[in-house]
């Protein structure tokens, strides 16, 4: 892990954007609270703003040096807030608008992964207006078990592992509750892993173990039974291939800032990319802070580092 940029000689005026109106607003508020606390402890002036309560178009940005985005889900991760801040000329953490939009759509990401030879489970894009029989046909030709998930949603909301045709209608109803588009995805049986990146640096790999059927919303945020491992049974070459796959997924999408890649390792030791999260969770249950701590990087340093690297890009950008 390379050294973070030097600590700024003067404290930064930082706006943490958290909350919003997405299905993940509660988690976003918790993430924002963690980030604010950590950056304040580093000596910065921090204000938390909830875009569902404050109009960002009329907000006074004149004293803001940089924005830390802790907005999960729709509006936060789909490129909308990024495009707004770019239009307002306000620097912010993380990926730019086009990359955020691409990563937030599971189908669009998968198409990019396929183009760049990054292994990802096969899928079919579906829409709520599709004929039910046509969806059933897709599912049958794909074979059970399969996974039904919203095309654009985070925190495993609306995700179901479907083992038989009888379970499909209810899974589709859950999926379409969150998004008008969804995907049917081949279910990969295996172990769950996550690769976290800070710009081009890779944080320690984590293997996730949960008593749940998969790493769902409860396992992510509410359960204390979920276990996170930094010591692995697998041989070194397998561990390296998981990390390499995670890095390749980020390169395929062109990400920057703090990013988390969710990966499944099948019984043949083949890694499969499920998705890339461009604004991963920053709560005390979240994976990136755990990985940073394992690397000896304090959470406040991690947050500050991302902001400084963004500001360095802004100041070195050629003027028109």
From TrEMBL:
Name of the protein described by the UniProt record: D-alanine--D-alanine ligase
Organism the protein comes from: Gimesia chilikensis
Cofactor(s) needed by this chain: Mg(2+); Mn(2+)
Lineage summary: Bacteria, Pseudomonadati, Planctomycetota, Planctomycetia, Planctomycetales
List of catalytic residues: 24, 155, 286
Domain ATP-grasp: 110-308
Xref: InterPro entries: ATP-grasp, ATP_grasp_subdomain_1, D-Ala_lig_Van_CS, D_ala_D_ala, Dala_Dala_lig_C, Dala_Dala_lig_N, PreATP-grasp_dom_sf
Family (UniProt): Belongs to the D-alanine--D-alanine ligase family.
GO molecular function, one term: ATP binding
Keywords assigned: ATP-binding, Cell shape, Cell wall biogenesis/degradation, Cytoplasm, Ligase, Magnesium, Manganese, Metal-binding, Nucleotide-binding, Peptidoglycan synthesis
Binding site for Mg(2+) 1: 262, 275
